[in-house]
Every structure is written in C-alpha cells, then in structure tokens.
Amino acid sequence: MKTLFISDLHLSPDQPELIRLATDFVASQVDVDAFYILGDIFNTWLGDDLIPGEFEPFIHALQDQQRNGARIYLMVGNRDFMLGHDFARLVGGSLMEDPVLVDIYGHSILLMHGDSLCTDDVSYQRYRKVVRKRWLQKLFLAMPLTIRQRISDKIKAKSKQQKQYKQAQIMDVNPAAVRQVMNQHNVHLLLHGHTHRPAIHQLGSVQNIPNYRIVLGDWHSEPSYIEITAEKIRLFDTRLPEGETQLSFT
User: Is the pTM of this model over 0.85?
Assistant: First the structure.
C-alpha cells in the first residue's frame, strides 16, 4: 500500500490536456491508502457553487478512488484558497488546515502548501493575510459570477505584473521560516508545494536525526508526485536526475 501527494496542478477549463493528465494519473493508481492534494489543484476557484463542467472527469476519478477505499485530503493554495468543504464532500474527502501534522505509516510529517514560508515576499504575505479573512470570503461568495470573475482577473493580472520585478529568491521559502515551523511542530520532515522547485533538501540534523524538506513540483506535460510506503519516500519528477529521488526510512 502507498500514500500519494500532489500539488500545483493548476487545472483550468482552457487546458483540457492538463485535466486529462491529472485524471489519468488519479484513475491509474492502485493500492492507495490516501491521496493528499496540497493546494492549487485549480488555477482559479470562484466558489464551490461554480464548478466548471470541464473538471468533471477529474472529480469522478477522485470519487472512484474514494469508493475504492482511498482517503482524500485537500488543502487550499494561493490560487484556489476559496475552495471549501462543499467541494471536499463532493469528492468524498476532507479539507485540511495549513499547516497540518499527519502520521504516515508511523512517521510524523508536516504538510503545507508552502506560500506562508515565502516570508521575504512581504507584499504577498500582506495580501495573503487579507484574502484569508472569513468575512471577506463570505462577501466575495455572495457576489454574482461576473463580478467574482472580474475581481479574480484583476488580481491575477496584478500578480503577474508584480512577479516580473521580484527576484527569484524572494519567491522561494525563507530558511528561518522553515526552521521555525519545523521546530514549532517538532518534526524532522516537511512536505510542501507552491514554489514549483521539486527537490529533497537535507537541512542538517537534530539529535542525530536528519531533517528534510521535500518540495513537490508543478504539473505541465508530466505528473510531479510523492509516493510514501512503509519503507521509503520517493519524489517523482522528470526535472530530477533520472526522474526520481528517494529517502529510506531507517
């Protein structure tokens, strides 16, 4: 049996090939204990009451996995932070907090989307704090679709413009923020997405136990995913040497 982790699919109605890739990946997996999706499943999410029909195959694949016994866990990201409990129930899953500490085959693992670790990007962290306010989200969801779409388009356009002037390191995680959250939760393994930089980073050791930060990649023409079994962790991404990096549990 295995547990799978994916992130940053950025599914969009105007990219049917990406929806097909994600659907085929989920549908093809067997002997799965659980699927964890760590945010930015969708490139834009305007509310659980407005699900584009193009996403139905992917939704059905998740439902089939749930009916086959796999547990489905969802975390929101910086693109689909309006995704809610109604969608989670639709796919037979549960919505997780960010960060969340989970036990996978006897190992404590801290899961995050990853955007909250990019503390050098001060303007984004200020924006994130505002848009995560519950009262503001309720106000947004009460608006007609056309207004929601207009607001979303303006935010994405402004974000794209700002990224052109930001240095690459500003949009990556801050090492001190990583150490702080791992110390706070007393864990040796952190798993996240968001930065689109797939890798396994060794962060030194605490009490002779090595600490690791594993980063999921975004999806384009190939999947990026983590597979955990009782024996090992494997990160699969074609951008990695030989397409795979792994750690063994000892």
Answer: yes
